Amino acid sequence: MRYAMLIDTKKCVGCSDCVVACQNENRVPIGYCRDWVIEHAKGTFPNVSIELRSERCNHCENSPCVRCCPTGASHYEEGGLVMVDRGACIGCGACVQSCPYNARYSHPDGFVDKCSFCNHRLEEGKNPSCVSVCPTSCMYFGDIDDEQSQLSQLLKNRTWKVLAPEVGTKPQIYYLT
Amino acid sequence: MNEEILISGRMNPHIDPTLGIWGWEIPLYLFLGGLAAGILFFAALYSLLGKEKELPTAVRKATFLVPVILMVGLGALFLDLKNKLYFWQLYTTIRIESPMSWGAWILMLITPLSMAWCLSYWRDLIPNWTWQVKYLEWIEEFVQKYRKAFAWTMIISSVILGIYTGILLSAFNARPLWNTSILGPLFLVSGLSTGAATIMWLSKEKLERSLFSKIDLLLIGIEVFFIIHLFMGFMASNAAQIEAAQLFLGGAYTLPFWGGVVLLGLVVPAILEVMELRGKHIPVAFPAILILVGGLVFRFIMVEAGQISQYLY
Asked: Keyword Transmembrane helix on this protein (chain B) (predicted)?
């Protein structure tokens, strides 16, 4: 089993509902966020296009943050989740440096925090909170190893990309383009 | 013109708009670690070569600074931690893949090693000293008895410490400016150079001074070569590294780096040392201070600029 997330950039309207849902669900301190929306405009006027992306920790298969952690606080869990053990984190900042997506932040309480794919909800069989609140249903969550999952089917039939694949982290958030 | 605009909704403290999770603590520590490694390396090297009498500053005197330097460095590292009371967790595990982990362990080895080395020369400093605590005397005898094994351990661990200060940064593939394997050797050579400059500064013997002046010249030469090599590597690399190099080739760090580090920290002291060797009288503190400050500024610039450099996607 390998958890992955898929976001349809053609359906996303950039409302930031996913951001607010996450902040509520995970009690993210005020002024911080675990997920965020990027508006990426490119082209030559008048031929311009805008891509909207909801971004977060990519739960990479080859995670530099897990590799560089000196205490083992950053670790893999079942389904490929990249998690932080708060009790083992000394807040050295190495993992923050190691993430090409800058997905981690230093929590005011002294540990490093980031998206957990709402693993407490996954245990109850629910989707991550960002996925479940999305008003345009542009986000999908599932098992990428299961060929019958909606996520796998979409990846088979649509064009997609991952962010900064050249860094070699094997990110597990896919964007339909 | 083809344009790209990225608007981000993220504004996490110390992460946005540019990364700044490491402040002054890490570059100061990298400098002190390199300096300590440099002094210990020469002490162990010349002890092994049997030059204890000819080079008293290198083998004995300068090493008394090392425990202090390491303590301050460790203090800086400790201050960098956001969860300070959990620092001991570094020593409940060894993680081979994490440079931070084996850095912590090598410090755990080299700090007591340097203390024991100083202890073995303590009576040089205060001749009629008597130890109040029995086991300190025992350590003193032990080091004197196994001096050679001690020196070998110190030489190896000081090279690891010196090179680790660079590898700590170069292991981060997310930061294009750091992600180059030349950074380890460059930081090692820079550390050895600051160590040699310190010994040169402290030394009262003419022979020792001119020897370390020559050693320092050689190290400066290697350092300049490595710096050229570093930028050649960047320019022949991918877009992210070319962009990272631009920070130093026209960008915000151009003057501090080429003016402050390369010119004032390497070229000028090298010229002063050559003049001194040719018989001109130059106060030894001048080149030594320039090299030390240059080394410190170099690490501050590399840590700060490295955090700015990133992959755009």
From this structure: yes
- pLDDT in the model for residue B1: 74
B276 in a structural domain: yes
Whether B151 is covered by a domain: the verdict is: yes
Looking up residue B303, the CATH number of its domain turns out to be: 1.20.1630.10
C-beta atoms of A90 and B3 within 8 A:
no
Instruction: Considering only the C-alpha atoms of chain B, give the largest distance between any 2 of them, rounded to a whole number of Å.
Output: 80
- Domain containing B50 equals 25-308
Domain count, chain B: 1
Distance of CA B244 to the CA centre of its chain: 23
The candidate with the shortest Cα–Cα distance to B35, out of B114, B112, B88, is B114
- Residues A118/A26, Cβ–Cβ less than 8 Å: yes
Instruction: Give domain limits for chain A.
Output: 3-176
Separation of alpha carbons B45 and B50, rounded Å: 9
| Residue of A33, A55, A98, A102 to mutate, testing the B interface (most B Cβ within 10 Å of its Cβ) | A102
Q: Where are the beta strands (DSSP E) in B95-192?
A: none
Is A15 an interface residue toward B (CB < 8 Å)?
no
The pLDDT tens digits for B132-174 are 888 999 999 999 999 999 999 999 999 999 999 999 999 999 9
Q: Which of A152, A137, A54, A144 is nearest to A103 (CA)?
A: A54
Question: Which CATH number does the domain A3-176 belong to among 3.40.1260.10, 3.40.190.10, 3.30.70.20, 3.40.50.2020?
Answer: 3.30.70.20
Is the Cβ–Cβ distance between A3 and A141 less than 8 Å?
yes
Cβ contacts from A onto B, under 8 A = 154
The arithmetic mean of pLDDT across residues B168-183, rounded, is 97
Q: What is the pLDDT of residue B174?
A: 96
Mark yes or no for CB contact B19/A67 under 8 Å: no
Q: In this complex, do B93 and A73 lie within 8 Å of one another by their Cβ atoms?
A: no
Contact B33, B76 (CB under 8 A): no
| Tokens representing residue B187 in the block | 């930081």
Helix (H) or strand (E) holding A113: strand A112-113
Mean pLDDT within B3-20: 94
Q: Which of B8, B87, B97 sits opposite A36 (nearest CB)?
A: B8
As a whole number, the mean pLDDT across chain B is 95
Q: What is the pLDDT of residues B213-233, one digit of tens each?
A: 999 999 999 999 999 999 999
Instruction: Give Cα separations from B214 to B52, B67, B189, B274 (angstroms).
Output: 19, 26, 14, 8
- Tell me which chain B residues have a C-beta less than 8 angstroms from the C-beta of A72: 93, 95
pLDDT tens, residue by residue, A42-65: 999 899 999 999 999 999 999 999
